[in-house]
Structure formats: C-alpha cells, structure tokens
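Sequence design from tokenized structure. All designs in this work follow the same two-part layout: the structure record, then the generated sequence. An example of the structure record is given first.
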C-alpha cells in the first residue's frame, strides 16, 4: 500500500499504524486540491497504472448512468474518537461528452452537535450542485 501511495504522491502518503484504517483514522491527510488533481488524473488515465486497471476503477465508481450523462464517485470520511469529522465525495461526471471532475469536502465545526456529516452528506450536496448545473445524469 505504501508503495502505491508513494507512486502517485497521494496526500501526505502516511498509512499510520493500521493498514486497514489509514484513510479513516486521519493518518492519511489530503487536501481538496490534491484530491481534485488525483481524480482528474484518474479520469484522464494519467496515473502510473495500466490503462485497463484505471478503466476498471472508473467503471466501478459509476453511480448513475443515462443516455448522455454519467456521474461517478466515491464517498469518504475521517473519524476520530468514534465521531465523523470530515465527509468527502470525490468523482467525475460526463454530460453530453464534456467531463467534469469534482471534490466536495465538508467539515464538522467544533461547536456543531449535529450527527449529520459524512460522505453520504457530501454526496447529496454534490448531486444537488450537479443537478443545479444541469450536469447530473438524467
């Protein structure tokens, strides 16, 4: 895992103590701009991996497909002490042949007691924005 994080320069490239939790436990840190660069490179097939494998990942990410549009992405979260502090939705959309890449990152404010944060919230926000922009698959 460390080899591949280093290979693509993904965030701070830290996997921490638990190989199966670093993307959730705040060991791996990545900015929204770094996420956008990564998803754009994935969409453009400009990563140091076999194109076939990149296309498999791109297809796995598809959430919604219509005649002239595709919306694809992956949710994520940062959890500390059992609480979700950050929600992510990262992906791409293609509408009438025009590609768009996006990153939605939402953060829980220290004073916010609301449990409504996480990747699913970021995804809902993103879908609303894509719909408002007439990009969302119809």
């Amino acid at each position: 895992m460390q080899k591949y994080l280093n290979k693509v320069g993904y965030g701070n490239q830290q996997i921490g103590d638990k190989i199966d939790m670093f993307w959730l436990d705040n060991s791996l840190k990545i900015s929204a701009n770094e996420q956008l660069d990564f998803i754009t490179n994935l969409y453009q097939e400009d990563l140091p991996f076999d194109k076939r494998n990149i296309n498999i990942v791109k297809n796995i990410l598809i959430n919604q497909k219509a005649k002239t549009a595709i919306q694809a992405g992956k949710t994520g979260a940062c959890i500390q002490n059992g609480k979700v502090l950050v929600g992510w939705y990262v992906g791409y959309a293609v509408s009438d042949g025009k590609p768009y890449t996006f990153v939605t990152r939402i953060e829980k404010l220290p004073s916010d007691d609301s449990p409504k944060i996480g990747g699913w919230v970021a995804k809902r926000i993103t879908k609303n924005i894509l719909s408002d922009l007439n990009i969302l698959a119809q």
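Residues 11 and 124 are 25 Å apart (CA to CA). We note this feature because it recurs in several other targets discussed in the main text.
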